[in-house]
Amino acid sequence: xPDTLLEVHQLKKVYETASGPVEAxxxxxxxxxxxxxxxxxxxxxxxxxxxxxxxxxxxxxxxxTIRLADRPVTGPPESMALVFQEYGRSLYPWLTVRGNVELPxxxxxxxxxxRSRLVDDALEAVGLEHAGRSYPxxxxxxxxxxxxxxxxxxxxxxxxxxxxxxxxVDAQTRADLEDLVRALHIERGMSIxxxxxxxxxxxxxxxxxxxxxxxxxWVQDDIAIDLAPERDQITTxxxxxxxxxxxxxxxxxxxxxxxxxxxxxA
Amino acid sequence: xxxxxxxxxxxxTIALPVILLALWWVVSADNTSxxxxxxxxxxxxxxxxxxxxxxxEDIVPSLARLALGYALALLVGVGLxxxxxxxxxxxxxxxPALEFLRAIPPPVIIPVIALFVGYSGWxxxxxxxxxxxxxxxxxxxxxxxxxxxxVLVDTARSYRFRRPTYLYQVVLRxxxxxxxxxxxxxxxxxxxxxxISELFAADNGLGAAIVQAQRAFAIPEMWTGIILLGVxxxxxxLIFRLAEWRALxxxxxxxxxxxxx
Lengths: 266, 261
Fold this sequence. Notes:
The structure holds two protein chains of two kinds.
Chain A lengths: L3 E14 L2 E14 L3 E5 L6 H8 L7 E6 L2 E2 L7 E4 L3 H4 L6 H6 L9 H14 L15 H14 L4 E5 L7 H18 L3 E5 L2 H7 L2 E5 L4 E8 L10 H4 L1 H19 L8
Parallel strand pairs in A: 2-10, 3-8, 3-9, 6-7, 7-8
Antiparallel strand pairs in A: 1-2, 1-4, 4-5, 9-10
Helix pairs in contact in A: 4-5, 7-9
Chain B lengths: L1 H27 L10 H11 L2 H35 L1 H16 L5 H9 L4 H25 L3 H9 L4 H39 L4 H10 L3 H29 L1 H12 L1
C-alpha cells in the first residue's frame, strides 16, 4: 500500500502500578491513508489518550509497532503536530499568539520572511489574522484552541493528531471548530487523526470512524462514513444516512460498554 | 474622579512615613542623650559624612560587591535549580541535603569563609553574599521547574524543540514567576549579607563605615549610615519590583484571566 501514512500494528500498553500491572491497550491495529480524516471513538476510560501518546512518540508501547510514512516511531516524529484538549495548558502564556505559532518553526530551514508568511497563512486559516499580537489568555477558549490549531497548520505536518480538542468548549463554538477542521482537511488536504468521545462529532467529521472497545482496548469496529465530502452542520446532520451511521456507532459503543463484543483472536 | 483616587492612594502611601519622621523629629528635638541625637542633628551631619569621596570609597564598593554576589547567586541558583528540577533522581538525592543547608543561618558561614580567604578584601564578601542569596533562588527555581505543566512539556516534545529553545522558552520562562519570588527574597538577604560581611573586617563599605563611626563616638554619623542603608534597601526593592512588573506582565494577565473565569 503505497499511500499508507500511519500504520499501527498490534499495539499493546501495560502500565506498571503499585497494585500490579494494568493493561490499558490490549491489541490495536489499524492503518490510515494519506489525506484521510479518521475519527477514533470509544467509551470513556478506553485508553484513547494512551493510544495517541504512543502514536505521538511521547509514550513507549509495551509491544507492537507504529510506522509513520514508512518510518518506525520511536520518539516524537518529525512531521507530526498535536492539538491537545487542554488548550489553556498547551499554549505558552508568556508568548503572544504569533510567538506561539512561530516557535516550532524556529528550527526549520527557512528565512524569517518565509516563516512570517507561514504564520500569517496559518492565522488566516483559523480566522485569527487580527489576534497575532494578543496573548492566549486574552482570548476565549474557542479562540485559544484556534491558536493551537494554527500552530499545527503552520508546522505543515504530514499528520495532525487531535486529542478531544473540543471537549471543553461550548456547543456553538464547537460546531464552528468542527467546520474549521473539515475545511482544513478539504482545502489543504491535511491528514487528520481525530479522537473524540462524541459520537455525532465523529460521524460528522470523519471519513472513517474507528470504534474502540473498553480497556484492555482493541479495535471493535471500523466504519466507512459514506457521506458527501461537503458537509454542513444543518443539512448533513439531518440526513437519514447520518442518523443511520450515528445509530450504528452508538450501538457499537453500547456493546463495548456492556462488554458484549467478542475480541477477535489474533 | 480618577485623579482624585490616585491622589488619595498617594496620600495613603506616604502618610505613615511622613508621620513617623515628624514624630522622630519632635520626640528627639530636645534630646540631650548623646546616643539618641536629634533627627535635626543627624540630617545636618549627612552632607559632611557622605561626601563624594566617601560615596566612592564606601557606597560604590558595597553595591558593587552586592551586585557581583547577587549575580553569581542568580547564575548558579537558576542553573543548578534547573538541573535539579528537571531530574527526579537528582532531586530525590539532593533535596534533604539542600533543606539542611538552607536551614543554616547565612551569616555563620562568614567565619568559615574567612578561614580560607580572610575577612578583608572582596573575595570573602562576594562569596558570603552569593552563598546567602543562593538558597532562596535555588530552591524556588527547583520548585518552579518541577511544577511545569506536563502538557506544555509534551507540546515542546512533540514539536521537537531543540535543547536550548526548550530550556529557555519553556523551562526558564515557565518557571520565571517562582524564580522571581526567590530572587526577591534573595535581594533582602543580599543586603543583610553585604552589611554583615563588612562588619567583620570593617575595612571599607557601608557596614564598616557604621562600625567605625560608632567606635569613634560619631553617633549622628552612625545614624546617617543606618538611614542610608534603609534608603538603599528600599530603592533596590523598588527597582526589583519595576523589573518584575515588566518581565512578568504575562503572568499577572494570566492570573487575572484565571480568576475572571
